[in-house]
Specification:
By secondary structure, the chain is of the alpha/beta class. It has one domain. Helix content is about 40%, strand content about 20%. The chain has a seven-stranded mixed β-sheet, sandwiched between helices.
């Protein structure tokens, strides 16, 4: 199973480059962090993020419904980086992931902050709560689908004040364009284009 997972990751990396995709920004140096990729407006956006991770030689882990981790998929999903969770128990997920970070020397957990490919009024806060509980930074990655570009952006050390920390994140994701832009979610419910202009004035 591990050989199959490695082959799949290698294939994703090759397809990423063959299709003309590029990665802009440095490879994150932290051994442990939460990686958020946005906006995930389609399955293709997620595939492109995985291709970028392979191009950067990042060994990602991701959350998956516990019901999927059964024979014959369980072994392959774990080899690909899957971590089984019961998504109906949000607090348990935060605690489980904090424990997972604590017991590993290297752990990169990737999460789609919207929690869905459909448009939402605001991002879910699970990724942030996990980073706070695990005391690890959050690395931002954005997609520009028309330009075939994945950008590695700012690293946020969460202060515990979600609204304040997400203001910097909101500015970074202004230029992000998924495959289906109309499905992109608002990061903060009260964030508007005018407010973002105030946060990031043009000199």
């Amino acid at each position: 199973m591990a050989a199959l997972a490695d082959a799949m990751k290698l294939t994703l990396g090759l397809l990423f480059k063959m299709q003309g995709w590029r990665v802009h920004g440095p490879r994150p140096a932290h051994p442990k962090f939460v990686l958020i990729g946005a906006p995930p407006t389609s399955n293709w956006d997620f595939v492109c993020f995985l291709g970028a991770a392979e191009a950067l030689d990042l060994d990602l882990s991701f959350l998956g419904k516990s019901s999927l981790f059964r024979w014959p998929l369980a072994g392959a999903l774990r080899d690909l980086g899957g971590v089984p969770v019961d998504r109906s128990q949000a607090l348990d997920i935060v605690g489980t992931m904090a424990t997972e970070f604590a017991r590993r020397d290297n752990f990169i957990l990737t999460i789609a902050p919207e929690g869905s490919r459909a448009r939402r009024d605001r991002w879910k806060t699970g990724f942030y709560n996990i980073a706070v509980a695990a005391e690890v930074p959050i690395v931002c990655a954005s997609i520009d689908f028309p330009r075939k570009l994945i950008t590695i952006g700012p690293t946020i050390c969460p202060s515990g004040d979600y609204e304040a920390d997400m203001k910097e994140v909101a500015v970074f994701y202004q230029a992000s364009v998924g495959k289906h832009p109309e499905r992109a979610s608002t990061i903060l419910q009260e964030t508007s284009s005018a407010r973002l202009s105030e946060l990031n004035p043009v000199s």
